[in-house]
Structure formats: C-alpha cells, structure tokens
Amino acid sequence: MGLTLVLNSGSSSLKFSLLDPETRRLYLSGLAEKLLVPTPQITFRSRDHTRTEALPAKGHKPAMQAILAELEAQGFKERVEAVGHRVVHGGERFKSSTRITPEVIAAIEACAALAPLHNPANLLGIRLALAHFPQVPQVAVFDTAFHQTLPEYAYRYALPGELYTRYGVRRYGFHGTSHQYVTRRAAELLGRPLETLGLISAHLGNGCSITAVRQGQSVDTSMGLTPLEGLVMGTRSGDLDPNIPQYLSDTLGLTLEQITELLNKKSGLLGLSGLSNDMRELEQAAAQDHAGAKLALEVFCYRLAKYVAAMSVPLGRIDALIFTGGIGENSAWVRRKTLKWLGGLGFQVDEERNQQAVRGQPGIITAEGSTLAMVVNTDEELMIAWETRAVLS
After folding, report:
1. Looking at residues 333-340, what average pLDDT do you find?
2. What Å distances lie between residue 252 and 237, 247, 290, CA to CA?
3. Which residues pair with 30 in a beta bridge?
4. Which residue would you say has higher pLDDT here, 10 or 367?
C-alpha cells in the first residue's frame, strides 16, 4: 500500500498527516485553524520546513482545498491510496475501525447526539475527502472503539436500565487511538508481548483520560458518556457531585446550557487556578508562589494518582504506568508529584531519567526495583494509518 492521508476534522480546525504506515515515515503534516473566524490560517510541516499562510476564506472547504493544493504541488496527491478519518463517537455500533460507506455515514450521524461538538465536524471532513478522493478507499477510526471491550460492570452506570437500553447512557471512553498506540509501543520498548501485560495509560493533554489495558484490551477507563467525566483537565472539571448542576441552577439561576459551558470550558486547571489551562504557564506561576496555580497542580496530580490506584483493580497488578500526551510527555513536575502520591504502590521516581524524558528520550523514569513508570510519545495519526491499512487489507 502507498501513502495514507489521515484527517482529523474538528469544529474549527482541520489537522492532517501524510505517512507511510509500513515504514512509519511522516512525509507531510499540517493544521488549519481558526476556521470560524475572519483570520483562518494553515501551517504545513515537512521534515525540514515549516510554513504558515492565511486561508482565503473561513470554513473547512478552503482548508481542504489548501491541503490538496499542497499535496499536488509536492507530488503526493496521486500517491494517496487510502484516507483514514478520526471519528470521536461510534456509540455501540462500531466496535472497530470501519470502511466508510453511505450506511456508515448515516450511523455516525445517528451518534451525533452523543458527541454534538465532534461528530458533525468529523463528518464534514469525511464528506470533503470523499468529494476530492472519490476513488480512494476511506476508513473511519473511532475514539470509542478501543473501549468496546469494557465488561458490562465497568461501562454501566447505576441508573434505571431503560436509560441504557433505549438511550445508550453508558460509559464509552475516549482517546482510544492514543491508548491503543502507547500500550502497543510500551510493549515494544519493554520487549514483552502485549498480551502478557497489565498496563495503565494516562493520556494527559488539554483533555485527559486514563485507561486500564489488560492483555491488549481496554478493561476500564475514566471518561464516560462524554469526555467530561474523570480526571481534571485543561478546562473540564472531570468528576464532581452530580447534584452540583442543580445547586448552581437554584442558587445562581444558571441554565443547563450555561452550566454545561462552565463545566466544559471554564473549569479544570483554568477554573482552579483562575489563570490558565496551560500546564507550562501554571508551573511557572507556581514557582513564583501563585496560590491558584499551586492549587491547580496539586489537585491535578492528586486526582491522577487516585485514578492510577483505581485502575490497578481490574488489572490485579501494574506492569507499567504510561505517561503520554502533551503534559504526560513534557511535564517532569507532574510525573514526579503523581508518583510521589503512589509510593504505596511501589513507585519511586528516578529524577535523572525523569528529566531525560523531557528532552525527548522516552522510556522508564522510575528507579531500579520500583514499579515501572514510563514515558511513551503518542502518535494517534500513525495509529489511525495502521488501523486504516488493517481494514483495507
């Protein structure tokens, strides 16, 4: 198979990568952003060059046209033999990646109520790609599919059964391509078969989730029906008392829409700190004794450590804890603080190894004799390309 084009269409962005899934070589990548404001732009990255330019108009269509023009200018367009699309929510219908057909598109649309900010944007990218590559096979790779191996006792909420059977209210989980990739990569780095390992994968970025992976399969995860549940995130609250929305409505007169906005976009690290959702800014501010930043960091790491301990339950043992994502790969402070909380589970950080990981050297960051913790750089685009190739093979 030749080159695979991977598309990740968001509500106001369009990210792409062109790569060879066999050799893992990335030929070209880019990000079109600010697509809903008057100043949209696109950045192209190749091995030795980065270029940013303005787009002629708002919306995803001009962004897709710019991507196609760049592919053609560099002689890549005719080499595209498959297109893989990230789709956030597949509900219970999609338990694995699937070749895109009109029936599949209709089923993704039917899941839109479960991910109203994501699935419609994902579908927009799919339709644009189908229009421009009508003869090229295309595959949907679902964030939720990796978690379809969760046992019922892990994915069901303690709610009346009809809410699940009729309306699909259950835990679905997200970041599946990242968790799948890093656990597979961790097994390679450890030189052990994935099917023999009990791994905990902590994907820490602006969105954060943690997953227990036993014998290569997801058996529990922190995100739920939506990506709001679980860990403290950049602007999302994570777990909270379910009666808080009613309390906010009664005491502040907030509407359901306003509360949802608050929990998704004004909470998490941003809400706790009153300063920023960027971990780098918070670490700098905490070093200068900013009380809100210090609190946000403490809550973030404490909640993460609690979830690591919880994820040891379905595994029975921890062969390795994996840190990944923008924060997981780059914040030695977060890793150190989290592992300090986990001393009771046998974790002991090796500070030299921990600092080496920040400098782009993934691998084990714990001391000899410690329960293993490691940093693995995620590559969701490569995982999507692998999944696309597997489906078409």
Report:
1. 98
2. 18, 8, 28
3. 16, 44
4. 367
List C-alpha distances in Å: 157 to 146, 153, 190, 218, 311.
Answer: 19, 8, 35, 17, 17
pLDDT range class, residue 348, cuts 50, 70, 90: very high
pLDDT value at residue 10: 85
* Region of poorest pLDDT, from 68-77, 164-173, 339-348, 352-361: 352-361
Helices (H), the chain: 60-73, 102-110, 119-132, 152-155, 161-165, 176-190, 244-252, 256-265, 268-273, 279-287, 291-315, 325-330, 332-341, 351-358, 380-392
Which pLDDT score, from 0 to 100, does residue 2 have?
86
* CA distances for 87 relative to 159, 163, 211, angstroms: 27, 24, 19
The bridge status of strand 217-221 relative to strand 198-204 is: unpaired
First to last CA, the chain: 9
Q: Mean pLDDT across the stretch 33-55?
A: 93
The CB-side HSE value for 62 (13 A sphere, CA atoms) comes to 18
Q: How far apart are CA 193 and CA 216, in angstroms?
A: 9
pLDDT tens digit sequence for 72-128:
999 999 999 999 999 999 999 999 999 999 999 999 999 888 888 789 989 999 999
Task: Name the residues annotated as catalytic.
Answer: 143
For residues 391 and 139, the answer to whether their CB atoms sit within 8 Å is yes
81 CB-contact burial (10 Å; exposed 0-12 / middle 13-18 / buried 19+): middle
Q: Cα(103)–Cα(115) distance, rounded to whole angstroms?
A: 19
Q: Rg of the chain over CA atoms, in angstroms? A: 21
Model-level pTM? 0.93
CA angle, corner 297, sides to 295 and 303, nearest 5? 100
Q: What does the block give as tokens for 124?
A: 């927009």
Is residue 47 classed as helix, strand or coil in its secondary structure? coil
The one-character DSSP state at 70 is H
d(CA 69, CA 353): 44
Smallest Cα–Cα separation from 3: which of 63, 68, 98, 83? 83
DSSP assignment letter at 371: P
- Amino acid identity at 149: T
Arithmetic mean of pLDDT, 235-257: 97
Rounded to whole angstroms, how far apart are CA atoms 236 and 376? 24
Q: How high is the mean pLDDT of the chain?
A: 95
